[in-house]
Design goal:
alpha/beta, 6-stranded mixed beta sheet, 32% helix, 12% strand
């Protein structure tokens, strides 16, 4: 990324963040503590340092993820909101679900807990990028997201047009910490049982769910298309 390109995209993201934070209602950012989320969080914190940082704690993350989350929460004094699943006992042995029924596991541990939490918010920031996977290629910069209850959120994706290389350059230029598993070859990091090295070098998310899928259900394709 050249200095001019970086400045243009960074300012574009910063302008959108500032405008979105002026919307009425409560804003929050979901963050899995990967590079894109940290980059976006650093931009949001220029305006609002106490923004709620929503971390979906499935109970199955890598130990490195938990340690990195805790370190950054401490060093940045984050307003961290850990979202945990409810009682899983009625749905069978929870330890086996990632292998026997990953769809159900994602729904119980990730999707439903997050959607319940999002009821308390009106503006939802994400670090989605179009280059992450074919399923995200049409992600718009601003979207509407309807919760199961019918409530609509404004979903804001300020770095949607950034590439992975641009995220890394922004991170280096701003001295942002990076998840330690990147150094081990993981370009996309989720729950430990369902994350492996990518099977397709051109698709960073191809190592998720052993290459059988790339989405958990939180981010369905937008009907709006890129904008």
């Amino acid at each position: 990324m050249t200095a001019v390109t970086r400045t243009r995209k960074e300012l574009k993201a910063e302008t959108l963040v500032g405008a979105a934070l002026e919307y009425p209602g409560t804003a929050g950012i979901t963050c899995s503590f990967q590079a894109g989320g940290i980059a976006l969080l650093s931009i949001i914190r220029r305006f609002r340092r106490d923004i709620p940082v929503l971390f979906v704690d499935t109970g199955l993350h890598f130990t490195e993820t938990y340690a990195f989350r805790d370190r950054l929460a401490r060093e940045w004094d984050l307003n961290l909101v850990n979202i945990t699943p409810g009682d899983l006992s009625a749905d069978g042995p929870s330890d086996d679900l990632p292998h026997t029924n990953p769809d159900l596991c994602c729904r119980l541990r990730k999707v439903e807990p997050l959607l319940r939490t999002l009821e308390d918010y009106d503006i939802w920031f994400t670090a989605l990028r179009r280059d992450q996977a074919p399923t995200r290629a049409a992600t718009p910069r601003i979207d509407r997201y309807r919760l199961p209850t019918g409530k609509q959120l404004i979903k804001v994706n300020p770095i949607v047009d950034w590439t992975w290389e641009e995220v890394l350059e922004f991170s280096r230029g701003n001295h942002l910490p990076l998840h330690p598993l990147y150094a081990a070859g993981y370009p996309s990091i989720g729950c430990a049982p369902c994350t492996s090295l990518p099977v397709d070098p051109s698709d960073a998310r191809s190592g998720r769910w052993n290459g059988t899928r790339t989405e958990c259900g939180i981010h369905p394709p937008s009907e709006k298309g890129p904008a």
